[in-house]
Amino acid sequence: MAILVDKNTRVICQGITGKTGLFHSQQCRAYGTPFFGGVTPGKGGTEVDGFPVFDSVDEAVRKTGANCSLVFVPPGGCGDAILEAAAAGITLIVAITEGVPVLDMVRTSKVLQTKFPNSRLIGPNCPGIITPGIAKIGIMPGYIHKKGSVGLVSKSGTLTYEASWQLGNVGMGQTTAIGIGGDPIIGTTFIDTLTMFEADPETESILMIGEIGGNAEIKAAEFIKSHVTKPVAAFIAGQTAPPGKRMGHAGAIISGGSGTAEEKIQALEAAGVIVARSPADMGKAVVEAISRKKR
Amino acid sequence: MKIHEYQGKALFAKAGVSVPQGIVARTPDEAAAAFTKLGGPIAVVKSQIHAGGRGKGRFKEQPDQPGVKLVRSAEEARENAQRMLGNTLVTIQTGPEGKQVNTLYVEGGLNIARELYLGVVVDREAGSPVVIMSSEGGVEIEEVAHHSPEKILKEPFDSGYGLQPYQARRLAYQLGLSGAAVTSAQSFLPKFCRFFVDNDCSMAEVNPLVVTAEGELVALDAKVTFDDNALFRHKEFADLRDLSEENEFEVRAGKAGLSYVKLDGNIGCLVNGAGLAMSTMDLIKLHGGEPANFLDVGGGANVQQVTEAFSIILADKNVKAVLVNIFGGIMKCDTIVTALLSAYDTVGFTVPLVVRLEGTNVEIARKMLAESGRKIIAATDLTDAAQKVVATLKA
After folding, report:
1. Which of B11, B29, B161, B329 has the fewest CB atoms within 10 Å of its CB?
2. Residues linked to residue B112 through DSSP beta bridges, in sequence order
3. What is the mean pLDDT of residues A54-80?
4. Which of B6, B105, B117, B260 is catalytic?
5. In angstroms, what separates the C-alpha of B164 from chain A's closest C-alpha?
């Protein structure tokens, strides 16, 4: 089962003729993801490395039956690309692009919510989503993610790889690993993902990786308390981050004294989540969360 | 990107947002001339630095001199400018090292009836920009939020349609404004919100926003931060950037495509990915060390970037050891090691270097490190890396 991605997923890439877009499309195809080509306006009718290229998402959908788009369009055009995908009926849009202006995402997510409620956006500024053994729609190294029973959701890329690797070390894998992105305005939230993992019969436990900035983790903690029955472990990055400084991710900033790691850790612990204090203990935290739930 | 008050006010004026008359001064004579030109009887001489708290701030070299001063004559304007220009202003936001004042803004006085607070930011939860106002002007908004949260008003608005007049009136009535002041708010606030959206701000703050005795809203301060991600479509902002206000190494890092934040510790870190970089700092602290920086080399680190990253880290004289933590994904570990070794030689390492690698091609990469002949300490996992780098400081 897993979430969001299954064997009926049919993927295209927006920005496939760019260097990064093509490279990752090739990597996804090599992983076994059902990949059907891409879109670059003005290059329709051509082909890159066996991928057919279309002028518009609409055309790509009509000709390939695509229902998922991986977006590598540069920051200035990313919001537009997301809306083009939604308007063409794409139901899962995965935006990898980093550096999208915040107000572009404000407009984009408002239009998505009001006009295209059936399209789900993941990202932007995220590594994407992988259901091990089925499909990889993103930039993560596929082999690190082993098939298993943990639902993994994270704001960060390399920290997700680290977590997957640690899970492997304790003999566990993932149903689906999803990077929701480190930007202030994102399409899919922790709560959306927790809801899906809770409903997914294959997912037996959840690992959630957050960071400083905003209050998404605190909202997630409230949600877990009242809606999640499965064991949940977590890690929050940025315990040593100074206030007022942006730590790489556009959303990772402690402002006005709120959005600290400590307040998020406390909220999660109060909701019964096992929080790893060290990033080296994420795998162990999942094991502990499971064994505590069993008692 | 932050800009100065005088720059923010020039942009406000262009957008039709009322500001007091003011003149920029870079010498004491210019300050005196500005006073005369503004016509008196009073004026305010304001230090232009990016940090707030200037009125309560004092100069290192002139401990009695405040960063913002009301003056009543051209001579007084000159004297104050003399004590401010070239000196170091320390405020609650600058840290103990303070900021050198190179520019002053001389502003005409106003007949102030009330002081309010006005700010606009993007509310992550609402997914839209939001106007924040308070009847408590002139004090830190965080303080108000802390002791009297009921005094904080919030009005989200649509970035496309802008703030509607009825929303402005609602805020005005809630703030207890009446008569001409409500009419003024109905024009001022939508223009201010339009300014925020049109210029891709991440924050625009006016504290205090004054209501004059005549019932006009005027921006007495201007604190504007632009969204760095949107600078590509605002080439005109390049001229507003004041590099003397920024950390020179953070500027250098930005040019090299690195994300770097200087901290106060002595263990430098080089990591790929923002989340992992933050975690690496946490890990160092957890094992009794203090991180000297946050540094994310990104996903496609090459030799030039790693070399620049090392030289930025080592330029910080506090750094006594360096920890490299790389989780190789698409970027393979052996590629990273090639870059590391080349950068190691170019930079000329004199402090201990601990390297932790994991991920794609890690075995080849570890072998390369072991056979490199350089004095590099290899770590097997995160905890081992943190323990080893902290131990080098105690040796």
Report:
1. B161
2. B212
3. 97
4. B117
5. 17
pLDDT at B283 over 70: yes
Q: Say if residue B201's pLDDT is above 80.
A: yes
* Residue ranges in chain B assigned as alpha helix (H): 5-14, 28-38, 74-84, 141-147, 165-174, 180-198, 248-255, 274-286, 303-315, 333-347, 362-370, 382-394
Q: Using the beta-carbon criterion (under 8 Å), do B275 and A216 form an inter-chain contact?
A: no
CATH number at residue A253: 3.40.50.261
Q: Is A162 on the interface with B (CB under 8 A)?
A: yes
User: Which of B14-28, B80-94, B140-154 bottoms out in mean pLDDT, i.e. has the lowest?
Assistant: B140-154
CATH fold group of domain B112-239: D-amino Acid Aminotransferase; Chain A, domain 1 (3.30.470)
Pair (A149, A288) in one structural domain: yes
Please give the residue of chain B at the shortest CA–CA distance from A24. B330
Q: Tell me the chain A residues in contact with residue B233 when contact means C-beta distances shorter than 8 Å.
A: 76, 101
How far is the CA of A150 from the CAs of A175, A189, A233, A283, in angstroms?
6, 18, 10, 10
Active site residue B205: yes
> In whole numbers, what is the pLDDT of chain A averaged over residues?
95
Across B311-337, average pLDDT: 90
What is the DSSP code (8-state) at residue A215?
S
Chain B residues close to A155, C-beta within 8 Å: 275
pLDDT score for B361: 87
Given an 8 Å threshold on Cβ–Cβ distance, is B272 in contact with A158? Answer: yes
Chain B residue numbers touching A109 (CB-CB < 8 A): 127
On whether any CB of chain A is under 8 Å from the CB of B359, the answer is yes
Number of structural domains chain A divides into: 2
Give the bridge partners for B335, in sequence order. Answer: none
Q: Do A100 and A193 share a domain, yes or no?
A: no
CA A204 to chain centre: 19
* B360 vs B101: which has the higher pLDDT: B101
Hunting for tokens 């402690």 — which residue is that? A254
CATH of the domain spanning B21-108, picked from 3.90.650.10, 3.40.50.150, 3.30.1490.20, 3.40.50.1390 = 3.30.1490.20
Q: Is the dihedral of CA A223, A226, A231, A237 positive or negative?
A: positive
Residue A102 is nearest to which of B122, B160, B263, comparing CB atoms? B122
* Residue A1 pLDDT grade (very low, low, confident, very high; cuts 50, 70, 90): low
A82 and A199 inside one domain: no
Q: Does the beta-carbon distance from A280 to B360 stay under 8 Å?
A: no
Q: Which residues of B touch A212 (CB under 8 A)?
A: 278
Tens of pLDDT, residue by residue over A143-189, are 999 999 999 999 998 899 999 999 999 999 999 999 999 999 999 99
Contact criterion met (CB < 8 Å) for B327 and A165: yes
Cβ distance B128 to A256 less than 8 Å, yes or no, reads no
pLDDT tens-digit readout, B359-390: 888 999 999 999 998 989 999 899 999 999 99
Cis-peptide into B129, omega within 30 deg:
no
pTM: 0.93
Position B37 pLDDT exceeds 90: yes
The domain covering B248-394 belongs, at the CATH homologous superfamily level, to: Succinyl-CoA synthetase domains (3.40.50.261)
Is B142 in Cβ contact with A278 (below 8 Å)? no
Domain that holds residue A89: 11-122
ipTM of the complex as predicted: 0.91
User: Structural domain boundaries of chain B?
Assistant: 21-108, 112-239, 248-394
